[in-house]
Design a protein that fits this description.
Elements: E1 6-9, H1 15-26, E2 30-35, H2 38-47, E3 54-58, H3 64-76, E4 83-86, H4 103-131, E5 134-139, H5 154-173, E6 179-185, H6 202-213, E7 224-226, E8 229-230
Parallel strand pairs: 1-2, 1-4, 2-3, 4-5, 5-6, 6-7
Antiparallel strand pairs: 7-8
Helix pairs in contact: 1-6, 3-4, 4-5
The protein binds NADP nicotinamide-adenine-dinucleotide phosphate.
């Protein structure tokens, strides 16, 4: 039997993150389901009781103390993070033009969507490098694709383009260590963020992130994927 891997998913109390937890647990991974609200993390983990092994933990990715507290707590419990799904994000000022977007909105957006991802990665990727196994999935968006970028949600779109740059940096920094780092576009999904008119279910939205989270050692690194296929940056 191969070793059981442990996955940590951020922003997993609802939406795509919750479904990623469900699918990873169903594949036999131990899942650390994190949410910024402890009670919501507990309730979400309880809802996945039948899927597999799911452990709830509080994590606000925008708060360095929250990140370090979780890292210490997991280390004390001898839980090593092998797979990291950076899913948590906020969408602020969706219909505000780039010339009207406030620095406060930009700051709040980057705090979670970029700096939060970097903080959590800095906490857990060094262990992956040391153990020579890691899968990092940055849940990005087509909104962050430079090729097709227009006027939609400037703060959010720029944060996701920056997130994609972080994917490239981290993939290059971990090259050759069996740590595979990729960005995933889940498509337009029916969640609180995507709204009720979105064409995709959470099951469909979670598919590419889960595929990237469970890549074999021969899998890609440093790419941007939609429906399991590479797409342009
Ligand atoms: P969602 O339903 O709005 O869920 C977002 C999650 O992020 C929530 O659990 C939220 O927690 C959490 N979160 C926000 N700030 C956080 C923080 N500082 N620390 C920890 N957790 C935080 O959104 P979703 O549609 O599932 O989106 C998941 C990912 O897919 C995001 O990265 C999003 O950008 C991406 N995406 C979504 C779509 C779409 O159509 N839905 C399309 C492209 C990309 P609370 O419940 O506490 O607020």
């Amino acid at each position: 039997m191969s070793e059981q891997r442990t996955a940590l998913v951020t922003g997993a109390n609802r939406g795509i993150g919750l479904e990623v937890c469900r699918q990873l647990a169903a594949r036999g991974l131990r899942v650390i389901l994190t949410a910024r609200d402890r009670a919501r993390a507990d309730a979400a983990a309880a809802s996945l009781r039948d899927a597999g092994e799911v452990i709830a933990a509080p994590l606000d990715v925008s708060d360095p103390r929250s990140v370090s507290t979780l890292a210490i707590d997991l280390s004390d419990r001898r839980l090593h993070v092998d797979v990291l799904v950076n899913n948590a994000a906020v969408l602020v000022g969706e219909s505000t033009g780039v010339l009207e977007t406030t620095i406060d909105d930009l700051r709040a957006t980057f705090q979670t969507n970029l700096f939060g991802v970097i903080l959590v990665s800095q906490a857990f990727v060094p262990g992956m490098i040391a153990r020579r196994y890691g899968r990092v999935v940055n849940v990005s968006s087509q909104a962050g694709q430079l090729l097709s970028m227009g006027t939609y949600a400037p703060a959010y779109s720029m944060s996701k383009a920056s997130l994609n740059a972080f994917t490239r940096q981290l993939a290059a920094a971990t090259q050759g260590r069996n740590v595979l780092v990729n960005s995933a576009d889940p498509g337009w999904v029916r969640t609180a963020m995507g709204g009720p008119s979105a064409p995709r279910s959470v099951e469909q939205g979670a598919d590419t992130p889960v595929w990237l989270a469970t890549l074999s050692a021969k899998g890609p690194t440093g790419g941007f994927f939609s429906d399991r296929k590479p797409i342009d940056w």
